[in-house]
Amino acid sequence: MPAALTASQRRRLIAAARKAAAAAYAPYSRFPVGAAVLMADGRVFSGCNVENASFGLTNCAERTAVFSAVAAGSRRLRAVAVFTPTPAPTLPCGACRQVLHEFGPEAQVLSVCAGAGQVETPLAALLPHAFGPGDL
Fold it and tell me: What pLDDT does residue 1 have?
């Protein structure tokens, strides 16, 4: 079990996710999402959703953040914060859960919103019986 997040780490992740949402390209859904990942090496990477007129080519904020971390050479995910402009927190979609699992099966997921809510849960609770490298 990884070490619990500190209050400072939570604040840093949430601030980065909120900031990333402001950069989202969401002309079709009008649902700007920001995410920030805390990697095992202590670095934080952020990402936003980037939509495309061909909807299947859209990339979620969580995956954008993870892919940025991997491109920078960081591969062990400790936690992710997701910010949505909703009254209640929104959890990552199934595709994002799978990508998060690839790099951090024991990661914590913080979902925060423009409203007053916040949810923190282990990724394993969101993706039970996940498929991963050990299944190959």
Answer: 61
